[in-house]
C-alpha cells in the first residue's frame, strides 16, 4: 500500500461517544465490528488497517480460561488459542482454538516476561482487556474495554485535561534510550479512560478526539464501514479490515489472476464459529454494484486456486451492492491462523498479482 492517511479530527460531540453501548466498543452479546469502528476517529487514505476482537466471546468459544493473574503457562495456553497456534498436544494431536482473535498489538509485551514492568508503566495488562479496536495508520490508536476506571491511570502525569502520558516528550518524539515494553520504538504514549474504556495512542490530539466524540468515525469509512456491516451479519467475533491498493507482485507463488478490470479498495476478514466449527468470512468493497457483480466469478477462481484452497473452502460467494462476500470453512486445524498470515504477508486471497 502507498499514500499518506489523513485523520479527521473533529472535536465536537456526536452520538458515537466512547462507551456508548451499541454505538461503541463492547464485548459479549453486544459486540459488533461496526460498534468497534464507531469507537475511533475516521482515518482516510491508502494505508489503513483496523483490527478488532471480542476476547470474552473468543475465550469462551475456544474453551480456555483467561488467567486472572500472571501465570506464564496459563497465559501461553490462552494467547496461543486466540492466535490460532497449538496450545497443547503434540504432532497430529495438537489442540487449536476454534476462532482466531489475536490480542491487541499494543499490549503484547504484557503477556511475557515484561508483564510486571508493563503493568507498572501502563496501569493495566492484556489480561484486563475484554475487547479492543486497533487502528494502524499514521495516527495509531487502540481502544480497550475491560477493568478500567479513574484509578487505572491515576499515577500517570497529565499532558492535557483528561489525557495522561506514559513517557515524556512531544508526540512521536523517538528516544531510543526510553524504549519500554509499552513503547518499543521509544515514543511517549498518550492515554485516557472515559466511561470505562481506555484509549492509548502516540498522538495527544487523537486521544482528545476520542474523549470528546469525533464528528466522523471509522464506521463512516466509505469502504470499511460497509464491510463491517457485512461481517456483523455473519456474527464474527474478531476481524481485520484494510483499505488501499491490493495489488501485489505475487511473490508468494499465488496462482490467482489479477482483477485488473474490477479492483477493490477495501477488504475485511472475520473469524467466527458455527455449530462448534471454525468459519471465516471475507468481504471485498468495490467502486460500484456492477464492478462487484462482475468480480464474483474471478474471486471464486482465486479461492479455488490450490494455494488458497489448502486452507479455505467456499461455502457461498455472492455480491450485495458494492460488496462481494465469501463465506468459508477451514481445511486444517491451523487454517484460521494461516488466513491471518496470508493477510499479513500480502498474499491471496487478499492481495492479488499486479499487471
What fraction, in percent, of the residue positions are helical?
A: 10-25%
List how many beta strands DSSP finds. Answer: 16
List the domain count as a whole number. 2
Intertermini distance: 16 Å
SSE string, helices as H and strands as E: EHEEHHHEEEEEEHHEEEEHHEEHE
How big a fraction of the residues is strand? 25-35%
Shape: globular
Physical arrangement of strands within the biggest beta sheet: 6-7-8-9-5-4-3-10-12-13-15-14
Unreliable sequence segments: 1-22, 249-254
Tell me the major beta sheet.
Answer: 12 strands, antiparallel
Helix and strand content put the structural class at: alpha+beta
User: Roughly how many Å is the radius of gyration?
Assistant: 20 Å
